[in-house]
Amino acid sequence: MNLKEAYSYAVTFFERNNVDEADFKALCIVCSILNIKNSEYEMHKNDFVSMKKLADMLWKVKEGIPLQYVIGKWDFYESEFYVGNGVLIPRPETEELVQKAVDYISSLNKCTVYDLCSGSGCIGLSIAKKCRGSFVYLIEKSAEALTYLEKNAKDIKNVKVIKGDITDIGAFNNLEMADVIISNPPYIKSEDLLNLQTEVKKEPSMALDGGKDGLDFYRIINDNWNDKLKEHGKLFLEIGEDQGKIINSVLNNFTDINVYKDIYGNDRMVEADKK
Fold first, then answer.
1. Per-residue CA distances from 132 to 152, 156, 159 (Å)
2. What is the pTM of this model?
3. Per-residue confidence band for 197, with pLDDT thresholds at 50, 70 and 90
4. Which of 50, 80, 118, 196 is an S-S bond match for 138, by CB 3.0 to 4.6 Å?
């Protein structure tokens, strides 16, 4: 079966099984089998595709396993990141957070960055690659997520991966002060976890559960990590779409708090200065 035939087969399979975004998911899967970009489809449409591998991947997506986990990697910002069971999937809204941080960091000669709740490392590693004058500490407590983080960080010189829990600030006493702290922490209300889409439920609850009101980790960052920022240090955060109005009161150790909307028009990013 060639690529064109495999794509047609995959679309039909998904449509018959009521899988959403059938065209897109089918294209991603067949191209991943040949290790090519989706944009390269036309150039390779007559190439051979393994039917066994295709069938296995289609079945996993039908069963509700996230597409990104099935493929094993996903594009984010300007790079490709390994992902899988136990790590949060990179999303396009987070690319906007990275760009805001990059715009600021690029104005500095040198910059020390903390990426808290780093997950796959897509945020911190994207910054490290784009801003060569930066040094990024990637902090993550999940052993499963660390597997992907360390794999993604391989051969990037201006980073350090740290296994640690951001709720235990004392464990980071010897860490140099930061110019920038950035984080996409868990921010979904605990009671809302049961109502998430089937695929999202497959992602680790540790990376999603922000406590009763979804704001637990913002309080931890505000209360414990403010002192790890240098004078005039910057904070960049991703937030839930319903948290834009309340985040100001949570971040009472910061000033000049600005909330920005994402590509979908929802409150999503916060930029703030240390008081």
1. 17, 10, 10
2. 0.93
3. confident
4. 118
Element (H, E) at 56: helix 51-62
Q: Are 116 and 139 in contact (CB under 8 A)?
A: yes
Whether 239 and 267 have beta carbons less than 8 Å apart is answered as yes
Could you tell me if 268 and 262 are in contact, meaning their C-beta atoms sit under 8 angstroms apart? yes
Give the HSE-up count for residue 272: Cα atoms under 13 Å, Cβ half-sphere.
28
CA distance 259 to 53: 44
Q: DSSP label at 88? A: P
35 dihedral zone (left: phi>0; alpha: psi -120 to 50; beta):
left
Helix (H, G, I), strand (E, B) or coil at 152: helix
272 token code pair: 């703030």
Left, alpha or beta for 5 (phi > 0: left; psi -120 to 50: alpha)?
A: alpha
**The pLDDT of residue 206:** 87
Rounded distance between C-alpha atoms, residue 260 and residue 248, angstroms: 13
pLDDT tens digits along 101-159: 999 999 998 999 999 999 999 999 999 999 999 999 999 999 999 999 999 999 999 99
* Chain CA centroid to CA 248, Å: 23
Q: Are 268 and 100 in contact (CB under 8 A)?
A: no
Q: CA angle, corner 135, sides to 129 and 138, nearest 5? A: 85
Q: Name 139's bridge partners.
A: 116, 162
In terms of Cβ atoms closer than 10 Å to its own Cβ (0-12, 13-18, 19+), residue 39 is: exposed
